[in-house]
Amino acid sequence: MYRYIRSFLFLLNPELAHHLSMKGLTLACFFGLIREKNIPSEPITIMGLNFPNRVGLAAGLDKNAEYITPLAKLGFGFIEVGTVTPRSQPGNSKPRSFRLIKDEGIINRFGFNNVGIDQFINNIKKAKFNGVLGINIGKNFDTPIDKAVEDYLTCFRKAYRYAGYIAINVSSPNTKNLRNLQSDKYLEILLKALKSEQKILHKKFKKLVPFVVKISPDNSSKQLDSIAKLLLKYKVDGVIATNTTIDRKGILSSKYAMEEGGLSGAPLNKKSTNVIKHLNKCLNRKIPIIGVGGIITADDGIEKINNGASLIQIYTGLIFRGHGLVNELRKATR
What is the CB neighbour count within 10 angstroms for residue 317? Predict the structure, then answer.
């Protein structure tokens, strides 16, 4: 059925199609038209959290935590919402999302468009989900890099009691200079501050919420080595590999190939897996890896796990394949 729905949605502007599909999913769930399939799964404990299955939704699809309840019906073991910033912001100008249909990829340059952390948390309070909820946080576009720590701490504090885990987004290519936060200088300052805050909030709420760092697929091997050392030094709870790429190799035939923004989907798959493989060696399984980037088939998900990922996430694959991909991945990774 999704093939026919997709044919209609792909006639529309990607942002409009996304809005309509999320509203449609909400209505379908309200009327009982979509129900989670009973697929036997082996729960897995990662970062002290009990995941019903290994398959999660990546950040970006539900930026404002508005659709957690209907998305839960698709069978995810965990859902990551955001990226959210301290203050609401409109993001970059439109158009800012482009489908590469033949390549099964998407280029976006949204720029953290979101309602801000306060409204975001209010939306979470209304949601129902029995899996693990991840909250992905970032900085406002006009916050200088040397002041970014305060933005992350603001969101970290407000999200803490409602999160299963918190993801620190320092790797989106769509906010100017954000990726500089992956450098030794800035990343160490950020990790030190967050680790200290985590200890304070753990004591305050009697609840330890792990935090993970989401990194870029465009880092060199040397940069990955440096990031891994800092993750180990500050005993970060996990790492998400990877965000979208600015690399355009292999998609030059597309009319959208030269659009600015981050590329996701099938063209990212190999690059993301190589980062997972490299990190797995550096971290020696001391820090779990959440694998994301180009998972379009069940085999793609298995490959991520075989190369060191403990959990996997999808986003673009869901758009191209529909929620049947969730079921395929759950069966393949149980």
Answer: 28
